[in-house]
Amino acid sequence: MGGAIMRDDRTIVIAGGGTAGWMAAAAFARFVTPGWRVALVESDAIGTVGVGEATIPQIRLFNRHLGLDEDQFLRETQGTIKLGIEFRDWTQPGHAYLHGFGDTGRPLGLLPFHHYWLRAQAEGWARDFGDYSLNSVAALKGRFARFEPQGPVPPMPYAFHFDAGLYAAFLRRFAEARGVVRYEGRIVSVERNAGGDIAALLLDGERRVAGDLFVDCTGFRALLIGETLGAGYEDWSRWLPCDRALAVASARTAPPIPYTRATARKAGWQWRIPLQHRTGNGYVYSSRHISDDEAAATLLDNLDGEALGDPRPLRFVAGKRQGFWRRNCVAVGLSSGFLEPLESTSIHLIQTAIARILAFLPAGNLSEADRAEYDRLTHLEYEYIRDFLVLHYHANGRVGEALWDDARASKPPPELARKLALWRSSARVSRRDEELFAEPGWTQVLIGQGVLPAASHPLADAVAPGDLKDFLDGVAQVAERVSAAMPAHADLLARVAASPPQERLTA
User: Fold this and answer.
1) Could you say which of 82, 411, 419, 469 is catalytic?
2) 176-211 pLDDT, tens per residue?
3) Average pLDDT over the chain, rounded to whole?
4) Which pLDDT tens digit goes with each residue over 308-324?
5) Does 373 reside within a domain?
6) Which of 59, 260, 391, 410 has a CA-to-CA distance to 72 between 20 and 30 Å?
7) Do 49 and 26 share a domain, yes or no?
8) Residue 84: which residues within 8 A CB-CB, separation 6 or more?
9) Are 310 and 178 in the same domain?
10) pLDDT, tens digit, for every residue of 453-482?
11) Three-state secondary structure string covering 454-480
């Protein structure tokens, strides 16, 4: 995120706590010098969504930049390791594939690995695509180790599952130890100055919290960016049809597996997120295709262990704000938009918004050109992630179910249509700008959901059959051998839990 930013006697006010608010507060406390004051307003009476318990590997960069100890983080958040996401029943009942972090195979000559696999697949002797991914093989074995890659052994990127409420509390201690001031109370109104900027938040008890830059972490309500400053919302439900979710924790019945599971259901999909102390579960569904009661019954009937409460409902519209930085206010988290957690991008979008705010933090009033550039980058980020999520729906194979039939028949967004046309014609993966999901992610999901191209690159045919078999077998053998030598994921968690806790975070 870079070094400290010099400013003089100004205040950042964060409206709302939860994961978004306390991630922002912790980052500002770490990277903004004492010339900036940081305040956060939240009310204990207002609950948080708290469904974002699965992440992608970039969360490790956020924690590392803050200087957090990884084992302490795992202890205090009841966290587990995540090597990827398993998708069950998206093409047909009983079928599963794993979108593992990191590469599948390795390049040979001028071509990416998937061209050689496609040739072997066409010839009828390729193994499952996931057998060539170290992350996928280790995940399904329940194995994990931290190590430095060397020789033919590839990197093994990893992320975390954690209790979002415990993570927010962990970051609150971090932020308050570094000078962030928390105000408890409800925001009853927003005061604006003569020029239209936000001047202060007015709290119950006739309290006033003034500031120069306001960060809206008020969730779906979008109190500042939406209600006060009028930034509209772009509805993407024509591509992402689910509009409700139910979330419930269940008792842990087995050692936590090091991957998230997303299982397709009649009217949506169900997540399973293993933590140390419990399992997080939820059903993301379309209210046009199933009743709330039936959705709750489906969720509860498909838990591994006893439900630890009643399912908590969540209503949403997939989409994004038409603007993310208005006047002296910027939206972070659910106030900026919502993309269902199918690829665990919710917390990542918080993280990138915070990094972008730090990059654009103004010395004076933010110029219109800067606001426009901030918005442009954020719009692109949302759109590229949206397209990757839409791919899962559009490329489904669940015939005879209204939600899935409609999703398969619908016209995809233009950029996704362009990507699919290139892939189907020549196995080419095309990416633009700095979009989040790289070629390995696209190939795993496309192949996993049965979208195979008409042909691989002709250079793949230049490798002699025996040499090609040796190459593919060698890649698979490395993944098998390295993963088999790793300790069990549960052993790492036991070691972390047993290690002596560090002292509480101090300034």
Assistant:
1) 82
2) 999 999 999 999 999 999 999 999 999 998 899 999
3) 94
4) 999 999 999 999 999 99
5) no
6) 260
7) yes
8) 98, 99, 100, 101, 135, 136, 139, 259, 260
9) no
10) 998 999 999 999 999 999 999 999 999 999
11) CCCCHHHHHCCHHHHHHHHHHHHHHHH
